Amino acid sequence: MPCRKNLLSILVVAAIAGPPAFCRTAGASEPTVARVTFNGGHFEPAKLTVPANQPFQVRVTNTDRTAIEFESFDLHRERVVRPGETITVYMAPAAPGHYSFCDDFDHSVAEGAIEAR
Amino acid sequence: MAIVAAALMAIQAIRTPVRNSGATGELQAPPDVQAALRRACYQCHSQETNWPWYVQFAPLSWFVHGRVSAARRRLDFSAWRDYLYDPGTAARKLGAIDQMMHSGAMPPWYYRLLSARARITPAERAAIETWAIEGRAAALKAEPQ
User: In whole angstroms, what separates CA A12 from the centre of its chain?
Assistant: First the structure.
């Protein structure tokens, strides 16, 4: 009996707490958010993976000392990110594939990529 | 002379892959603005480029295809609906259009020289500027925080 009680409390706690944060996935109405930080002259991570054929967002944080222009010619996006700023770039559903992005203010910066799959 | 002719023949083998692809959405603008943009800008800044016969031949094809490709990367009116999906991007594109119209940097001088279609009247320029300024303000307001 005490064992059954313990099991019940575990189930109740699990139901209230929901899935752990590290395995939380976006719901049907909640778009996937991919995060990228620009620091020290490069994008980190350099590759983002998003679900194909679904809208998604890219949250770009610039922790560098100069402004960058987050640009994806492939996905038709162009946004300025000032030092210390975080912006959200809204993306339309993308077909499976590889889409590059760069800092259009400085072409010596290594390109990043978004992989939709 | 024979060497030049042979060289010209040989370079025709180097093809440029720039073509027209599908549009993702029509530009929403007042008729006068739309007409002026279509006439003077769409030739390079859209997927509706009308490729004249002479741009099929190198080395002119390299130059023209290169310019059109670069222009589309900067601004592609055929991708307008795509820009609007991200209000920040739409605001940036509209800001650039306003700037280009205001400074007179666009259409480029050599294109204005070659084609009467590329010449924009002051009234058209003013109408495009007004549309771009108002559109940018609306896009900035629309941006979700």
Answer: 31
